[in-house]
Structure of DeoR faimly transcriptional regulator:
Amino acid sequence: MAMNTDPRLNRRQEELVAIVQREGFVAVDELATHFDVAPQTIRRDLNLLSDANLIRRYHGGVSAPSSVENVAYAARQTLQAAEKDRIAHAIARQIPDGSSLFINLGTTNEGVGRALLEHRDLRIITNNLNIAILLSDIPSFEVIVAGGVVRGRDHGVTGEATIELIRQFKVDYGIIGISGIELDGTLLDFDFHEVRVAQAIVDHSRQVFLGADHTKIGRNAMVRLGDFSQVDAWFTDKAPPDELAPVLAAAGTEVHIAG
C-alpha cells in the first residue's frame, strides 16, 4: 500500500502534531482529554499522521519524529499552510522594489517567493529550484541559481559550489527558514549541508529575516545553525513564549507577528 505523504490536515490534527513536537511524547488518553474527543477519534488521527511520517506511534502514545530526519517535504507543505502564507506575505511586505536578496530552502520560503511576484526589479540568488523557476517568469527580476547537488525530495541545491557562489555576493536581505528553535535562542536544522548554506547566507546579507511559525519552538533537530543574535527580524504567526523574550531583547531581534 502506498504511504500517504500529503495529508490534508484539519485544525485538530495540526494542533496535535504541534503538541507532539513540543512535548516529545504524549499519551493517547492525554490527547483525547485535551481535545475532548473519544480515544477512537484520536487513534484515527494518529493513524493518518503516522502514515505521513508526521509522528511516531508507540503502545499507548506517540512521539515526535526523529531529531536527525525532517518530516517529508510533501507533508510539510500542508502543515501550518495558512500560517506560513501569512508569514511569507509579512516578509514580502518588508522587501522594497529594487532589492537584492538570498532565499534558501523550505516551504515557508517558497511562500515568500510567491508573495514577491508583484514586486519589481528584484535581484534574487537562490539554491531553491522551485523558487528560481517561479520568479524567473517575471521580466524585471534577475534570478541567479546557486550550483551544486540537487536534492530530489525538494529541488534544493547544496554543496561546496553552492556556498562558493553565495560568498561572491553581499545582498540587502537574506531570507532563511529553520526547523527548530530552542528556548535559549539556538536555531536548529536537520541537514548539515543545508545549514552550511544558510550560514553563508547569514554572513553575506546586510539584514537577515527568519520565517518560522510557532510549531518550530521547542522542536528537536540535530544541527546548530546559529542563534537570534544573527537574525535582524523574526516573522512568525504567534507571540513567542515569555522564556524567549529576554533572549530576543538581548539579540536585538525584531519580532513580526503575521496577523
User: Anything to note?
Assistant: The first helix runs from residue 11 to 23. The longest strand covers residues 205-211. The chain has two domains: 11-64, 80-257. The two ends are 40 Å apart (CA to CA).
